[in-house]
């Protein structure tokens, strides 16, 4: 008897529409193994195009921080350069020179004391950049401990319970004990409260987040620095800070230029950001910069002979696209400081408008108001109803094309569900008004239920 597929189980074969297939072409292809014969590029294009068409509208995806729009000139530049291999600096020396220009521009933007004396590199995103920042912290701690004749086998890293999952991965992959400081109603971010209970002589560093993924809030880096100063006076422990600026690293310099969060803060040794978030580049772009070259241990830098050249490398990935680096430089040239400020301000204006209006809806209570990065979150007002949840609202909005995630907060706040909106370049005020109208109509619809909606198992939202 032939196997019957359930509705959520794809068939073994991929059928080809007769209008797509050219004369002589097969009308089906295996879905999970290579077909025996080639297919014309036009047919293959149409099949892939139609499957991808089922994805959501990227402009209406308010869950992701990742950029979804660039100029036509950027698209043309991308198409002209997607064959460049970033690691092959001998073959593509101009791209290599532009990469160095970009991280030096970034070092200057983050107030490195001497950008020419700093060191940095491009990565495929903030996750790789975080790994490099964490590795440098661990290696510097190990080398210092061994120089003192002490054991270096039990490192730990202190961070908020609201860190992005990459830091949990870092600790897992590189055998570092994670120490999570729980956030709470009173301490919504890692602000130095009770920090002394989490650090000791095995602490390789503290991670401070400029733009918490759950809510978009900045952690007060200068306040954390002051807490560590006090700990050093009491204990002698000299603990550095790595700033995870995946989202805020390309917002704060333009919207909050007087905020001390970067290399102006003495303990900040390294910073990462995502060029493909508020750096306004298509996915696949990250940066990490160290205050000075001595903060990146030589033991992490390899000199390799590759494709005719002798080059240093300290990124985790080897062969990777160079096009995104050129796109980042395109944006630096195209926008400049004032252009970036205008773009980020426009996004924040939309976010603050939405936060203010959503905050007036009786069903909701704001957690934050988008005054940091253009991101905010809210929870259901206590006592409003037990008949529906924010998950139901998220489902209702998805029916209208909007992706507005609901998810539980971390650890000590795990019983609290919030909903979050990320405003990126491309979400206009007109679209925001349409979203607001859909939220208001959805709340009105859900409030009409006289008994609880049937529940179902919810998977956690993956940031």
How does this model look, in words?
Helices cover 33% and strands 16% of the residues. By secondary structure, it is of the alpha/beta class. The protein has 3 domains: 13-55, no CATH class; 73-331, Type I PLP-dependent aspartate aminotransferase-like (Major domain) (Aspartate Aminotransferase, domain 2, 3-Layer(aba) Sandwich), CATH 3.40.640.10; 336-447, Alpha-Beta Complex (Aspartate Aminotransferase, domain 1), CATH 3.90.1150. The two termini are 43 Å apart. The model is unreliable at 1-5 (pLDDT under 50).
Termini separation: 43 Å
Largest sheet, spatial ordering of strands? 3-9-8-7-6-4-5
> What share of residues is helical?
25-40%
Helix/strand/pairing class, anyone? Answer: alpha/beta
Short description:
Residues 1-22 are annotated as: Disordered. The chain is of the alpha/beta class and 463 residues long. It contains ten helices and 15 strands.
């Amino acid at each position: 008897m032939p196997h019957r597929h359930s509705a959520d189980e794809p068939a073994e074969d991929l059928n080809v529409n007769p209008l797509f297939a050219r004369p002589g072409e097969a009308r089906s292809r295996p879905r999970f193994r290579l077909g025996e014969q080639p297919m014309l590029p036009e047919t293959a294009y149409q099949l892939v195009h139609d499957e991808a068409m089922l994805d959501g509208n990227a402009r209406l995806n308010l869950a992701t921080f990742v950029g979804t729009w660039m100029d036509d000139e950027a698209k043309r530049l991308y198409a002209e350069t997607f064959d460049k291999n970033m690691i092959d600096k001998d073959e593509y020396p101009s791209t290599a020179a532009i990469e160095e220009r970009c991280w030096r521009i970034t070092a200057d933007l983050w107030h490195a004391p001497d950008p020419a004396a700093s060191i940095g590199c491009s990565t495929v995103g903030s996750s790789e950049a975080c790994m490099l920042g964490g590795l440098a912290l661990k290696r510097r701690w190990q080398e210092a401990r061994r120089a003192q004749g002490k054991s270096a086998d039990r490192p730990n890293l202190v961070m908020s319970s609201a860190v992005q999952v990459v830091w949990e991965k870092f600790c897992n992959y590189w055998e570092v004990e994670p120490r999570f400081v729980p956030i709470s109603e009173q301490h919504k971010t890692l602000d130095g409260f009770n920090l002394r209970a989490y650090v000791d002589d095995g602490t390789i560093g503290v991670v401070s987040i400029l733009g918490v993924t759950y809510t978009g809030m900045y952690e007060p880096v200068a306040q954390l620095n002051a807490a560590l100063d006090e700990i050093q006076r009491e204990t002698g422990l000299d603990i550095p800070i790595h700033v995870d600026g995946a989202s805020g690293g390309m917002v704060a310099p333009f919207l909050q230029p007087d905020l001390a969060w970067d290399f102006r803060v003495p303990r900040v040794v390294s910073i990462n950001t995502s060029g493909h978030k508020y750096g306004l580049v298509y996915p696949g772009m990250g940066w990490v910069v160290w205050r000075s070259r001595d903060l990146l241990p030589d033991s992490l830098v390899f000199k390799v002979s590759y494709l005719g050249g002798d080059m240093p490398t300290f990124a985790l990935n080897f062969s990777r696209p160079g096009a995104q680096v050129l796109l980042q430089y395109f944006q630096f040239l195209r926008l400049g400081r004032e252009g970036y400020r205008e773009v980020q301000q426009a996004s924040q204006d939309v976010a603050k408008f939405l936060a203010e209006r959503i905050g007036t809806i009786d069903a909701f209570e704001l957690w934050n108001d988008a005054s940091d990065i253009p991101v905010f979150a809210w929870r259901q007002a206590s006592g409003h109803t037990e008949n529906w949840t924010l998950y139901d609202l998220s489902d209702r909005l998805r029916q209208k094309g909007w992706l507005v995630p609901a998810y539980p907060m971390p650890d000590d706040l795990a019983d609290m569900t919030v909903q979050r909106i990320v405003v990126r370049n491309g979400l206009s005020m007109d679209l925001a008004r349409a979203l607001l109208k859909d939220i208001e109509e959805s709340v009105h619809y859900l409030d009409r239920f006289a008994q609880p909606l049937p529940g179902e198992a919810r998977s956690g939202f993956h940031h």
